[in-house]
Hints:
The protein is mostly helical.
Amino acid sequence: MEARVKLMGHPVHQMLVVFPVGLLGMSVIFDLVYFATNEQVFEVVAYWMMVSGIVSGLLAAPFGLADWTKIPKDTRAKRVGAVHGIGNVVVVLLFIASVWLRDDAMAVPSTAAYVCSFLGLGLALVTAWLGGELVDQLGIGVRENANVDAPSSLSRTQQTAHRTG
């Protein structure tokens, strides 16, 4: 099935998701750079990356939900999409908690703030993979004749098909 909302022929959700994934991921990188250098500027950058990632994630979400509502019921794609979407809500909530626990951009974060953002990034990697599975394996958002019940890209059947095809 094709995306419900497109801009110049391309799915809007797929265009927008690069921002929260990149910004939230880089916020954790800047936290790690802070650990290595103890330079306060890296904590400030991490904070604002998180804020920007949260905002961009909230902007991308309605477009993903619109696409998800178009997926046929009782299909693998509908289930994968639900886990992807719910997982991303949890990702955003974890980063919101991290920002809230940091109090402000100049505060040195508590351990709990780091735990929230690091867990958020770990979960984001899983949900990003699920998004890739929706697009690359199941064809969601890219072709009208999508195979909404295609096997997982991790399945042996799929791996064998790639080797022989």
